[in-house]
Amino acid sequence: MQVVQTIAQLRAILQPCRSEGRSVGFVPTMGYLHDGHMALVQRARRENDVVVVSIFVNPTQFGPNEDLAAYPRDLERDLALLDKGGTDQVFCPSVEELYPPGYMTYVHIEGAVTETLCGRSRPGHFRGVATIVSKLFHLVMPHRAYFGQKDAQQVAVIQQMVRDLDFDLEVVPCATVREADGLALSSRNTYLTTAQRAQAPLIHQALQDARSTIAAGERRAVKVVERIKDRLAAIDDSTIDYVSVVDARTLADLETVTGEALIALAIRVGRTRLIDNIRVQV
Amino acid sequence: MQVVQTIAQLRAILQPCRSEGRSVGFVPTMGYLHDGHMALVQRARRENDVVVVSIFVNPTQFGPNEDLAAYPRDLERDLALLDKGGTDQVFCPSVEELYPPGYMTYVHIEGAVTETLCGRSRPGHFRGVATIVSKLFHLVMPHRAYFGQKDAQQVAVIQQMVRDLDFDLEVVPCATVREADGLALSSRNTYLTTAQRAQAPLIHQALQDARSTIAAGERRAVKVVERIKDRLAAIDDSTIDYVSVVDARTLADLETVTGEALIALAIRVGRTRLIDNIRVQV
Protein backbone atom coordinates (compact mmCIF):
# COMPACT_ATOMS: atom_id res chain seq x y z
CA MET A 1 0.00 0.00 0.00
CA GLN A 2 1.27 3.47 -0.90
CA VAL A 3 0.42 6.55 1.14
CA VAL A 4 0.70 9.92 -0.60
CA GLN A 5 0.10 13.46 0.58
CA THR A 6 0.41 15.51 -2.60
CA ILE A 7 -1.59 15.88 -5.79
CA ALA A 8 1.58 15.49 -7.87
CA GLN A 9 2.42 12.14 -6.22
CA LEU A 10 -1.13 10.86 -6.61
CA ARG A 11 -1.27 11.79 -10.30
CA ALA A 12 2.13 10.22 -10.96
CA ILE A 13 0.97 6.94 -9.43
CA LEU A 14 -2.48 6.80 -11.02
CA GLN A 15 -1.44 7.87 -14.55
CA PRO A 16 0.09 4.47 -15.45
CA CYS A 17 -2.97 2.63 -14.01
CA ARG A 18 -5.23 4.54 -16.37
CA SER A 19 -3.04 4.19 -19.44
CA GLU A 20 -2.83 0.43 -18.78
CA GLY A 21 -6.64 0.36 -18.72
CA ARG A 22 -6.93 -0.83 -15.11
CA SER A 23 -10.23 -0.02 -13.39
CA VAL A 24 -10.06 2.30 -10.39
CA GLY A 25 -12.43 2.07 -7.39
CA PHE A 26 -12.49 5.04 -5.03
CA VAL A 27 -13.64 5.42 -1.43
CA PRO A 28 -13.57 9.03 -0.15
CA THR A 29 -13.54 9.23 3.67
CA MET A 30 -12.89 11.65 6.51
CA GLY A 31 -10.91 8.97 8.34
CA TYR A 32 -11.48 7.50 11.81
CA LEU A 33 -12.55 4.43 9.91
CA HIS A 34 -15.12 1.90 11.09
CA ASP A 35 -16.63 -1.26 9.59
CA GLY A 36 -18.95 0.88 7.47
CA HIS A 37 -15.97 2.39 5.65
CA MET A 38 -14.27 -0.99 5.45
CA ALA A 39 -17.36 -2.50 3.77
CA LEU A 40 -16.95 0.16 1.06
CA VAL A 41 -13.27 -0.72 0.69
CA GLN A 42 -14.07 -4.45 0.46
CA ARG A 43 -16.65 -3.85 -2.25
CA ALA A 44 -14.24 -1.56 -4.15
CA ARG A 45 -11.59 -4.31 -3.84
CA ARG A 46 -13.94 -6.94 -5.34
CA GLU A 47 -15.04 -4.76 -8.26
CA ASN A 48 -11.83 -2.97 -9.37
CA ASP A 49 -8.19 -3.51 -10.27
CA VAL A 50 -6.97 -0.59 -8.16
CA VAL A 51 -8.46 0.68 -4.87
CA VAL A 52 -7.86 4.29 -3.84
CA VAL A 53 -9.02 5.62 -0.45
CA SER A 54 -8.82 9.28 0.54
CA ILE A 55 -8.65 10.47 4.15
CA PHE A 56 -9.42 14.17 4.42
CA VAL A 57 -11.44 16.03 7.04
CA ASN A 58 -12.91 18.57 4.64
CA PRO A 59 -13.25 21.99 6.28
CA THR A 60 -15.68 23.39 3.67
CA GLN A 61 -18.44 20.98 4.71
CA PHE A 62 -18.36 22.03 8.38
CA GLY A 63 -20.35 25.05 9.58
CA PRO A 64 -18.72 27.67 11.81
CA ASN A 65 -20.29 26.13 14.95
CA GLU A 66 -19.69 22.51 14.01
CA ASP A 67 -17.12 19.95 15.16
CA LEU A 68 -14.30 20.45 12.61
CA ALA A 69 -11.51 20.89 15.17
CA ALA A 70 -12.89 18.15 17.43
CA TYR A 71 -13.62 15.68 14.61
CA PRO A 72 -11.92 12.43 15.63
CA ARG A 73 -8.67 11.52 13.85
CA ASP A 74 -6.36 8.49 14.06
CA LEU A 75 -4.31 8.21 10.87
CA GLU A 76 -2.05 5.40 12.11
CA ARG A 77 -4.97 3.13 12.97
CA ASP A 78 -6.73 4.06 9.69
CA LEU A 79 -3.68 3.13 7.62
CA ALA A 80 -3.36 -0.24 9.38
CA LEU A 81 -7.02 -1.01 8.65
CA LEU A 82 -6.73 0.06 5.01
CA ASP A 83 -3.57 -1.98 4.48
CA LYS A 84 -5.30 -5.07 5.84
CA GLY A 85 -8.38 -4.28 3.74
CA GLY A 86 -6.42 -4.49 0.48
CA THR A 87 -6.13 -0.80 -0.35
CA ASP A 88 -3.57 0.12 -3.04
CA GLN A 89 -3.31 3.90 -2.61
CA VAL A 90 -4.18 6.15 0.31
CA PHE A 91 -4.40 9.88 -0.38
CA CYS A 92 -4.22 11.97 2.80
CA PRO A 93 -3.49 15.55 1.75
CA SER A 94 -3.14 18.61 3.94
CA VAL A 95 -5.83 21.29 3.92
CA GLU A 96 -3.41 23.62 2.09
CA GLU A 97 -2.86 21.02 -0.63
CA LEU A 98 -6.56 20.98 -1.53
CA TYR A 99 -7.48 24.55 -0.61
CA PRO A 100 -4.42 26.71 -1.36
CA PRO A 101 -4.53 30.47 -0.70
CA GLY A 102 -6.83 32.20 -3.20
CA TYR A 103 -9.13 29.18 -3.49
CA MET A 104 -12.49 30.42 -4.93
CA THR A 105 -14.50 27.66 -6.65
CA TYR A 106 -17.54 25.79 -5.31
CA VAL A 107 -20.03 23.32 -6.74
CA HIS A 108 -23.59 23.94 -5.69
CA ILE A 109 -26.63 21.74 -6.24
CA GLU A 110 -29.91 23.60 -5.98
CA GLY A 111 -33.32 22.37 -4.88
CA ALA A 112 -34.71 19.88 -2.40
CA VAL A 113 -31.74 17.51 -2.71
CA THR A 114 -29.55 19.98 -0.79
CA GLU A 115 -32.19 22.13 0.92
CA THR A 116 -34.25 19.54 2.84
CA LEU A 117 -33.18 17.22 5.70
CA CYS A 118 -29.62 18.02 6.86
CA GLY A 119 -29.44 20.90 4.36
CA ARG A 120 -31.86 22.89 6.51
CA SER A 121 -29.78 22.73 9.70
CA ARG A 122 -26.37 22.61 8.01
CA PRO A 123 -26.37 25.46 5.43
CA GLY A 124 -23.42 25.15 3.05
CA HIS A 125 -22.68 21.57 4.12
CA PHE A 126 -23.56 19.96 0.79
CA ARG A 127 -21.83 22.71 -1.16
CA GLY A 128 -18.68 21.68 0.72
CA VAL A 129 -19.36 18.00 0.05
CA ALA A 130 -20.02 18.51 -3.67
CA THR A 131 -16.91 20.66 -4.02
CA ILE A 132 -14.48 18.26 -2.33
CA VAL A 133 -15.96 15.23 -4.11
CA SER A 134 -15.61 17.04 -7.47
CA LYS A 135 -11.98 17.76 -6.69
CA LEU A 136 -11.29 14.18 -5.59
CA PHE A 137 -13.05 12.79 -8.68
CA HIS A 138 -10.78 14.94 -10.87
CA LEU A 139 -7.70 13.78 -8.97
CA VAL A 140 -8.51 10.07 -8.82
CA MET A 141 -10.65 9.76 -11.98
CA PRO A 142 -12.27 6.60 -10.65
CA HIS A 143 -14.46 4.25 -12.66
CA ARG A 144 -16.56 3.62 -9.53
CA ALA A 145 -16.97 5.62 -6.32
CA TYR A 146 -18.41 4.07 -3.15
CA PHE A 147 -20.61 5.86 -0.62
CA GLY A 148 -22.52 4.57 2.42
CA GLN A 149 -26.32 4.84 2.50
CA LYS A 150 -26.16 6.03 6.11
CA ASP A 151 -25.49 9.43 4.54
CA ALA A 152 -28.44 9.02 2.19
CA GLN A 153 -28.66 12.72 1.37
CA GLN A 154 -24.95 12.82 0.54
CA VAL A 155 -25.50 9.90 -1.88
CA ALA A 156 -28.45 11.70 -3.50
CA VAL A 157 -26.43 14.93 -3.81
CA ILE A 158 -23.44 13.16 -5.39
CA GLN A 159 -25.69 11.22 -7.77
CA GLN A 160 -27.39 14.46 -8.86
CA MET A 161 -24.00 16.14 -9.33
CA VAL A 162 -22.57 13.23 -11.34
CA ARG A 163 -25.65 13.18 -13.60
CA ASP A 164 -25.75 16.97 -14.06
CA LEU A 165 -22.04 17.62 -14.59
CA ASP A 166 -21.57 14.49 -16.75
CA PHE A 167 -18.87 12.90 -14.62
CA ASP A 168 -17.96 9.65 -16.41
CA LEU A 169 -18.13 7.30 -13.42
CA GLU A 170 -20.53 5.12 -11.47
CA VAL A 171 -21.70 6.10 -7.99
CA VAL A 172 -22.16 2.90 -5.96
CA PRO A 173 -24.35 3.35 -2.87
CA CYS A 174 -23.68 0.68 -0.22
CA ALA A 175 -25.97 -0.51 2.58
CA THR A 176 -25.55 1.03 6.03
CA VAL A 177 -23.47 -1.15 8.36
CA ARG A 178 -24.95 -1.42 11.86
CA GLU A 179 -23.94 -2.60 15.31
CA ALA A 180 -25.63 -5.81 16.49
CA ASP A 181 -28.24 -3.68 18.29
CA GLY A 182 -29.04 -1.68 15.13
CA LEU A 183 -27.11 1.55 15.72
CA ALA A 184 -25.70 2.80 12.41
CA LEU A 185 -21.90 2.95 12.49
CA SER A 186 -20.55 6.52 12.54
CA SER A 187 -17.29 8.14 13.52
CA ARG A 188 -19.39 10.41 15.72
CA ASN A 189 -20.66 7.48 17.86
CA THR A 190 -17.38 7.82 19.74
CA TYR A 191 -18.75 11.03 21.28
CA LEU A 192 -21.61 9.16 23.05
CA THR A 193 -21.55 8.48 26.81
CA THR A 194 -22.30 4.92 27.95
CA ALA A 195 -25.84 5.91 28.89
CA GLN A 196 -26.42 7.64 25.55
CA ARG A 197 -24.96 4.66 23.68
CA ALA A 198 -27.37 2.35 25.52
CA GLN A 199 -30.39 4.34 24.28
CA ALA A 200 -29.10 5.05 20.75
CA PRO A 201 -30.53 1.81 19.22
CA LEU A 202 -34.00 3.34 19.71
CA ILE A 203 -33.24 5.40 16.57
CA HIS A 204 -33.07 2.40 14.26
CA GLN A 205 -35.97 0.73 16.09
CA ALA A 206 -38.14 3.79 15.42
CA LEU A 207 -37.31 3.57 11.70
CA GLN A 208 -38.02 -0.17 11.57
CA ASP A 209 -41.32 0.41 13.33
CA ALA A 210 -42.16 3.02 10.67
CA ARG A 211 -41.45 0.48 7.95
CA SER A 212 -43.80 -2.01 9.62
CA THR A 213 -46.50 0.64 9.92
CA ILE A 214 -46.21 1.37 6.21
CA ALA A 215 -46.21 -2.33 5.37
CA ALA A 216 -49.43 -2.55 7.39
CA GLY A 217 -51.05 0.07 5.15
CA GLU A 218 -50.28 3.54 6.57
CA ARG A 219 -49.63 6.00 3.72
CA ARG A 220 -49.94 9.39 5.46
CA ALA A 221 -46.39 10.73 5.89
CA VAL A 222 -47.48 12.94 8.79
CA LYS A 223 -48.64 9.88 10.73
CA VAL A 224 -45.40 8.01 10.06
CA VAL A 225 -43.36 11.00 11.22
CA GLU A 226 -45.50 11.40 14.34
CA ARG A 227 -45.00 7.77 15.31
CA ILE A 228 -41.21 8.01 14.90
CA LYS A 229 -41.07 11.21 16.96
CA ASP A 230 -43.10 9.55 19.75
CA ARG A 231 -40.54 6.75 19.91
CA LEU A 232 -37.50 9.05 19.78
CA ALA A 233 -38.93 11.01 22.72
CA ALA A 234 -37.81 8.11 24.95
CA ILE A 235 -34.14 9.08 24.39
CA ASP A 236 -32.94 11.21 27.34
CA ASP A 237 -31.43 14.65 26.76
CA SER A 238 -32.24 14.55 23.06
CA THR A 239 -33.59 17.08 20.54
CA ILE A 240 -35.03 16.05 17.21
CA ASP A 241 -33.56 18.02 14.31
CA TYR A 242 -35.90 16.51 11.70
CA VAL A 243 -37.87 13.40 10.83
CA SER A 244 -38.94 13.41 7.16
CA VAL A 245 -40.49 11.23 4.51
CA VAL A 246 -39.09 12.21 1.10
CA ASP A 247 -38.75 10.96 -2.45
CA ALA A 248 -35.58 8.82 -2.45
CA ARG A 249 -34.14 10.48 -5.56
CA THR A 250 -35.17 14.14 -5.43
CA LEU A 251 -35.55 14.31 -1.61
CA ALA A 252 -38.73 16.37 -2.13
CA ASP A 253 -41.12 16.03 0.81
CA LEU A 254 -43.86 13.42 0.36
CA GLU A 255 -47.34 13.83 1.81
CA THR A 256 -48.24 10.29 0.82
CA VAL A 257 -45.75 7.44 1.09
CA THR A 258 -45.38 6.27 -2.49
CA GLY A 259 -42.80 4.87 -4.91
CA GLU A 260 -39.25 4.71 -3.58
CA ALA A 261 -39.38 6.70 -0.34
CA LEU A 262 -36.66 7.63 2.14
CA ILE A 263 -37.47 8.06 5.81
CA ALA A 264 -34.65 10.08 7.31
CA LEU A 265 -33.96 11.67 10.66
CA ALA A 266 -31.37 13.64 12.58
CA ILE A 267 -31.34 13.83 16.36
CA ARG A 268 -29.07 15.50 18.82
CA VAL A 269 -28.26 13.18 21.74
CA GLY A 270 -26.55 15.33 24.32
CA ARG A 271 -24.15 17.31 22.10
CA THR A 272 -23.79 14.59 19.47
CA ARG A 273 -25.76 14.83 16.24
CA LEU A 274 -26.72 11.41 14.86
CA ILE A 275 -28.43 10.62 11.55
CA ASP A 276 -30.08 7.51 10.21
CA ASN A 277 -32.54 6.51 7.51
CA ILE A 278 -34.40 3.65 5.94
CA ARG A 279 -35.79 3.12 2.45
CA VAL A 280 -39.26 1.81 1.73
CA GLN A 281 -40.69 0.75 -1.61
CA VAL A 282 -44.48 1.10 -1.84
CA MET B 1 -15.09 14.87 -39.70
CA GLN B 2 -17.80 13.39 -37.52
CA VAL B 3 -20.71 15.42 -36.19
CA VAL B 4 -22.52 14.12 -33.11
CA GLN B 5 -25.47 15.43 -31.14
CA THR B 6 -25.57 13.12 -28.12
CA ILE B 7 -23.38 12.49 -25.09
CA ALA B 8 -23.51 8.74 -25.72
CA GLN B 9 -22.19 9.14 -29.29
CA LEU B 10 -19.45 11.53 -28.20
CA ARG B 11 -18.26 9.18 -25.44
CA ALA B 12 -18.32 6.19 -27.77
CA ILE B 13 -16.09 8.03 -30.25
CA LEU B 14 -13.63 9.53 -27.76
CA GLN B 15 -13.20 6.43 -25.55
CA PRO B 16 -10.91 4.63 -28.06
CA CYS B 17 -8.84 7.84 -28.60
CA ARG B 18 -8.10 7.97 -24.89
CA SER B 19 -7.33 4.30 -24.46
CA GLU B 20 -4.94 4.52 -27.42
CA GLY B 21 -3.20 7.41 -25.64
CA ARG B 22 -3.97 10.00 -28.33
CA SER B 23 -3.91 13.62 -27.16
CA VAL B 24 -7.18 15.53 -27.39
CA GLY B 25 -7.41 19.28 -28.08
CA PHE B 26 -10.75 20.94 -27.42
CA VAL B 27 -12.28 24.20 -28.64
CA PRO B 28 -15.62 25.06 -27.01
CA THR B 29 -17.66 27.57 -29.03
CA MET B 30 -21.16 29.00 -29.34
CA GLY B 31 -20.94 28.68 -33.13
CA TYR B 32 -21.27 31.40 -35.81
CA LEU B 33 -17.58 30.90 -36.25
CA HIS B 34 -15.13 33.55 -37.34
CA ASP B 35 -11.35 33.62 -37.88
CA GLY B 36 -10.83 33.98 -34.11
CA HIS B 37 -12.42 30.58 -33.53
CA MET B 38 -10.57 29.11 -36.50
CA ALA B 39 -7.23 30.30 -35.06
CA LEU B 40 -8.06 28.23 -31.94
CA VAL B 41 -8.88 25.22 -34.11
CA GLN B 42 -5.64 25.60 -36.08
CA ARG B 43 -3.58 25.74 -32.91
CA ALA B 44 -5.43 22.72 -31.45
CA ARG B 45 -4.75 20.90 -34.76
CA ARG B 46 -1.01 21.62 -34.51
CA GLU B 47 -0.69 20.53 -30.88
CA ASN B 48 -2.92 17.44 -30.62
CA ASP B 49 -3.74 14.10 -32.25
CA VAL B 50 -7.50 14.66 -32.08
CA VAL B 51 -9.38 17.96 -32.37
CA VAL B 52 -12.86 18.27 -30.85
CA VAL B 53 -14.98 21.40 -31.30
CA SER B 54 -18.30 21.97 -29.54
CA ILE B 55 -21.02 24.26 -30.86
CA PHE B 56 -23.56 25.07 -28.18
CA VAL B 57 -25.32 28.35 -27.43
CA ASN B 58 -25.37 27.90 -23.68
CA PRO B 59 -28.58 29.29 -22.16
CA THR B 60 -27.25 29.39 -18.56
CA GLN B 61 -24.72 32.11 -19.42
CA PHE B 62 -27.34 34.50 -20.83
CA GLY B 63 -29.27 36.83 -18.53
CA PRO B 64 -33.07 37.13 -18.85
CA ASN B 65 -32.76 40.36 -20.90
CA GLU B 66 -29.86 39.24 -23.06
CA ASP B 67 -29.68 38.04 -26.66
CA LEU B 68 -30.07 34.24 -26.25
CA ALA B 69 -32.91 33.87 -28.77
CA ALA B 70 -31.35 36.35 -31.19
CA TYR B 71 -27.79 34.99 -30.89
CA PRO B 72 -26.62 34.35 -34.48
CA ARG B 73 -26.53 30.74 -35.65
CA ASP B 74 -25.42 29.08 -38.91
CA LEU B 75 -24.58 25.44 -38.31
CA GLU B 76 -24.12 24.53 -41.96
CA ARG B 77 -21.52 27.24 -42.53
CA ASP B 78 -19.81 26.40 -39.21
CA LEU B 79 -19.48 22.72 -40.16
CA ALA B 80 -17.97 23.59 -43.54
CA LEU B 81 -15.39 25.83 -41.85
CA LEU B 82 -14.53 23.21 -39.22
CA ASP B 83 -14.20 20.48 -41.83
CA LYS B 84 -11.79 22.63 -43.83
CA GLY B 85 -9.92 23.53 -40.60
CA GLY B 86 -9.06 19.91 -39.86
CA THR B 87 -11.55 19.20 -37.06
CA ASP B 88 -12.07 15.52 -36.17
CA GLN B 89 -15.23 15.68 -34.03
CA VAL B 90 -17.94 18.31 -33.74
CA PHE B 91 -20.27 18.08 -30.77
CA CYS B 92 -23.48 20.10 -31.27
CA PRO B 93 -25.96 18.89 -28.66
CA SER B 94 -29.49 20.14 -28.03
CA VAL B 95 -30.26 22.19 -24.91
CA GLU B 96 -32.20 19.19 -23.52
CA GLU B 97 -29.17 16.93 -23.96
CA LEU B 98 -27.02 19.11 -21.68
CA TYR B 99 -29.73 20.48 -19.37
CA PRO B 100 -32.36 17.75 -19.01
CA PRO B 101 -35.45 18.31 -16.84
CA GLY B 102 -34.49 18.37 -13.16
CA TYR B 103 -31.04 19.86 -13.85
CA MET B 104 -29.76 21.44 -10.60
CA THR B 105 -25.94 21.76 -10.46
CA TYR B 106 -23.83 24.88 -10.98
CA VAL B 107 -20.15 25.74 -10.60
CA HIS B 108 -19.53 29.10 -9.04
CA ILE B 109 -16.24 30.98 -8.71
CA GLU B 110 -16.28 33.66 -6.02
CA GLY B 111 -14.34 36.90 -5.80
CA ALA B 112 -13.08 39.53 -8.20
CA VAL B 113 -12.50 37.07 -11.03
CA THR B 114 -16.28 36.75 -11.56
CA GLU B 115 -17.52 39.89 -9.81
CA THR B 116 -15.62 42.66 -11.61
CA LEU B 117 -15.76 43.71 -15.30
CA CYS B 118 -18.53 41.84 -17.16
CA GLY B 119 -19.54 40.10 -13.91
CA ARG B 120 -20.98 43.36 -12.62
CA SER B 121 -23.34 43.94 -15.54
CA ARG B 122 -23.99 40.26 -16.33
CA PRO B 123 -24.81 38.61 -12.97
CA GLY B 124 -24.76 34.81 -13.27
CA HIS B 125 -22.94 34.91 -16.61
CA PHE B 126 -19.72 33.33 -15.38
CA ARG B 127 -21.61 30.78 -13.29
CA GLY B 128 -23.18 29.66 -16.57
CA VAL B 129 -19.79 29.68 -18.32
CA ALA B 130 -18.06 27.69 -15.54
CA THR B 131 -20.91 25.18 -15.44
CA ILE B 132 -21.03 24.46 -19.17
CA VAL B 133 -17.24 24.33 -19.46
CA SER B 134 -17.09 21.85 -16.54
CA LYS B 135 -19.65 19.67 -18.27
CA LEU B 136 -17.84 19.83 -21.61
CA PHE B 137 -14.49 19.07 -19.92
CA HIS B 138 -16.05 15.96 -18.36
CA LEU B 139 -17.51 14.89 -21.70
CA VAL B 140 -14.45 15.54 -23.88
CA MET B 141 -11.69 15.04 -21.24
CA PRO B 142 -9.25 17.08 -23.31
CA HIS B 143 -5.53 17.35 -22.68
CA ARG B 144 -5.64 20.98 -23.84
CA ALA B 145 -8.51 23.44 -24.13
CA TYR B 146 -8.26 26.60 -26.25
CA PHE B 147 -9.86 29.96 -25.41
CA GLY B 148 -9.52 33.37 -27.05
CA GLN B 149 -8.04 36.26 -25.07
CA LYS B 150 -10.78 38.55 -26.43
CA ASP B 151 -12.85 37.07 -23.59
CA ALA B 152 -10.05 37.70 -21.07
CA GLN B 153 -12.31 37.40 -18.05
CA GLN B 154 -13.64 34.08 -19.32
CA VAL B 155 -10.05 32.83 -19.62
CA ALA B 156 -9.25 33.99 -16.06
CA VAL B 157 -12.42 32.31 -14.72
CA ILE B 158 -11.70 29.02 -16.47
CA GLN B 159 -8.06 29.08 -15.31
CA GLN B 160 -9.19 29.68 -11.71
CA MET B 161 -11.73 26.85 -11.96
CA VAL B 162 -9.22 24.42 -13.48
CA ARG B 163 -6.69 25.21 -10.72
CA ASP B 164 -9.25 25.06 -7.90
CA LEU B 165 -11.14 21.94 -8.97
CA ASP B 166 -7.97 20.11 -10.06
CA PHE B 167 -9.03 19.48 -13.64
CA ASP B 168 -6.17 17.56 -15.24
CA LEU B 169 -5.79 19.63 -18.41
CA GLU B 170 -4.03 22.67 -19.80
CA VAL B 171 -5.93 25.88 -20.55
CA VAL B 172 -4.33 27.51 -23.60
CA PRO B 173 -5.18 31.22 -23.99
CA CYS B 174 -4.80 32.43 -27.59
CA ALA B 175 -4.26 35.98 -28.86
CA THR B 176 -7.29 37.97 -30.01
CA VAL B 177 -7.75 37.92 -33.76
CA ARG B 178 -8.60 41.34 -35.22
CA GLU B 179 -9.86 42.84 -38.44
CA ALA B 180 -7.29 44.84 -40.44
CA ASP B 181 -8.59 48.02 -38.76
CA GLY B 182 -8.15 46.56 -35.25
CA LEU B 183 -11.74 45.57 -34.35
CA ALA B 184 -11.67 42.34 -32.34
CA LEU B 185 -13.52 39.53 -34.13
CA SER B 186 -16.81 38.64 -32.44
CA SER B 187 -19.98 36.88 -33.53
CA ARG B 188 -21.80 39.95 -32.22
CA ASN B 189 -20.09 42.26 -34.78
CA THR B 190 -22.74 41.05 -37.19
CA TYR B 191 -25.28 43.16 -35.25
CA LEU B 192 -23.47 46.43 -36.11
CA THR B 193 -24.82 48.87 -38.72
CA THR B 194 -22.40 50.11 -41.38
CA ALA B 195 -22.00 53.41 -39.52
CA GLN B 196 -21.38 51.65 -36.19
CA ARG B 197 -18.91 49.27 -37.85
CA ALA B 198 -17.00 52.27 -39.24
CA GLN B 199 -16.52 53.73 -35.75
CA ALA B 200 -15.89 50.44 -33.91
CA PRO B 201 -12.09 50.46 -34.51
CA LEU B 202 -11.92 53.39 -32.07
CA ILE B 203 -12.25 50.77 -29.30
CA HIS B 204 -8.95 49.08 -30.09
CA GLN B 205 -7.31 52.44 -30.82
CA ALA B 206 -8.26 53.66 -27.34
CA LEU B 207 -6.64 50.56 -25.80
CA GLN B 208 -3.48 50.97 -27.89
CA ASP B 209 -3.30 54.59 -26.86
CA ALA B 210 -3.56 53.50 -23.21
CA ARG B 211 -0.65 51.12 -23.73
CA SER B 212 1.44 53.97 -25.18
CA THR B 213 0.52 56.21 -22.26
CA ILE B 214 1.68 53.55 -19.82
CA ALA B 215 4.86 52.94 -21.83
CA ALA B 216 5.48 56.69 -21.54
CA GLY B 217 5.34 56.44 -17.74
CA GLU B 218 1.72 56.85 -16.60
CA ARG B 219 0.99 54.51 -13.68
CA ARG B 220 -2.24 55.95 -12.25
CA ALA B 221 -5.07 53.61 -13.32
CA VAL B 222 -7.65 56.37 -12.96
CA LYS B 223 -5.78 58.50 -15.53
CA VAL B 224 -5.52 55.59 -17.96
CA VAL B 225 -9.25 54.88 -17.63
CA GLU B 226 -10.11 58.56 -18.08
CA ARG B 227 -8.09 58.77 -21.29
CA ILE B 228 -9.79 55.65 -22.73
CA LYS B 229 -13.24 56.99 -21.83
CA ASP B 230 -12.45 60.31 -23.54
CA ARG B 231 -11.59 58.49 -26.74
CA LEU B 232 -14.60 56.14 -26.59
CA ALA B 233 -16.87 59.19 -26.24
CA ALA B 234 -16.31 59.78 -29.98
CA ILE B 235 -18.39 56.70 -30.81
CA ASP B 236 -21.98 57.78 -31.64
CA ASP B 237 -24.95 56.34 -29.77
CA SER B 238 -22.68 54.46 -27.35
CA THR B 239 -22.73 53.86 -23.59
CA ILE B 240 -19.67 52.71 -21.70
CA ASP B 241 -20.39 49.71 -19.44
CA TYR B 242 -16.93 49.71 -17.86
CA VAL B 243 -13.29 50.56 -18.47
CA SER B 244 -11.03 48.92 -15.86
CA VAL B 245 -7.41 48.29 -15.06
CA VAL B 246 -7.10 45.00 -13.16
CA ASP B 247 -4.58 42.36 -12.15
CA ALA B 248 -4.42 39.96 -15.12
CA ARG B 249 -4.78 36.86 -12.95
CA THR B 250 -7.12 37.77 -10.08
CA LEU B 251 -8.93 40.60 -11.94
CA ALA B 252 -8.80 42.65 -8.74
CA ASP B 253 -8.91 46.41 -9.46
CA LEU B 254 -5.50 48.11 -9.62
CA GLU B 255 -4.94 51.69 -8.50
CA THR B 256 -1.41 51.62 -9.84
CA VAL B 257 -0.54 49.88 -13.09
CA THR B 258 1.93 47.21 -12.04
CA GLY B 259 2.98 43.65 -12.85
CA GLU B 260 0.86 41.89 -15.46
CA ALA B 261 -2.17 44.17 -15.87
CA LEU B 262 -5.28 43.80 -17.99
CA ILE B 263 -7.04 46.86 -19.38
CA ALA B 264 -10.54 45.77 -20.26
CA LEU B 265 -13.68 47.49 -21.43
CA ALA B 266 -17.26 46.86 -22.46
CA ILE B 267 -19.26 49.35 -24.48
CA ARG B 268 -22.75 49.31 -25.87
CA VAL B 269 -22.81 50.62 -29.45
CA GLY B 270 -26.45 51.08 -30.32
CA ARG B 271 -27.92 47.86 -28.92
CA THR B 272 -24.76 45.79 -29.41
CA ARG B 273 -22.47 45.12 -26.46
CA LEU B 274 -18.82 44.86 -27.50
CA ILE B 275 -15.83 43.94 -25.32
CA ASP B 276 -12.11 44.24 -25.85
CA ASN B 277 -8.93 44.27 -23.78
CA ILE B 278 -5.19 44.58 -23.89
CA ARG B 279 -2.44 43.29 -21.60
CA VAL B 280 0.43 45.39 -20.36
CA GLN B 281 3.51 44.22 -18.50
CA VAL B 282 5.06 46.89 -16.29
UniProtKB/TrEMBL annotation, chains A, B:
Family: Belongs to the pantothenate synthetase family.
Organism name: Desulfatitalea alkaliphila
Gene Ontology molecular function: any one: pantoate-beta-alanine ligase activity
UniProt xrefs under Gene3D superfamilies: HUPs (3.40.50.620), Pantoate-beta-alanine ligase, C-terminal domain (3.30.1300.10)
Highest taxon listed in the record's lineage: Bacteria
InterPro entries: Cyt_trans-like, Pantoate_ligase, Pantoate_ligase_C, Rossmann-like_a/b/a_fold
EC number: 6.3.2.1
Protein name: Pantothenate synthetase
The protein's role, per its UniProt record: Catalyzes the condensation of pantoate with beta-alanine in an ATP-dependent reaction via a pantoyl-adenylate intermediate.
Binding-site list for (R)-pantoate: Q61, Q154
Localisation: Cytoplasm
Residue numbers binding beta-alanine: Q61
Complex and partners: Homodimer.
The protein's annotated pathway: Cofactor biosynthesis; (R)-pantothenate biosynthesis; (R)-pantothenate from (R)-pantoate and beta-alanine: step 1/1
Binding site for ATP: 30-37, 148-151, 177, 185-188
GO cellular component, one term: cytosol
Keywords of this entry: ATP-binding, Cytoplasm, Ligase, Nucleotide-binding, Pantothenate biosynthesis
GO biological process: pantothenate biosynthetic process
Active-site residues (renumbered): H37
Classification via Pfam families: Pantoate_ligase
HAMAP family on file: PanC
SUPFAM superfamilies: Nucleotidylyl transferase
Miscellaneous information on this protein: The reaction proceeds by a bi uni uni bi ping pong mechanism.
Membrane among keywords: no
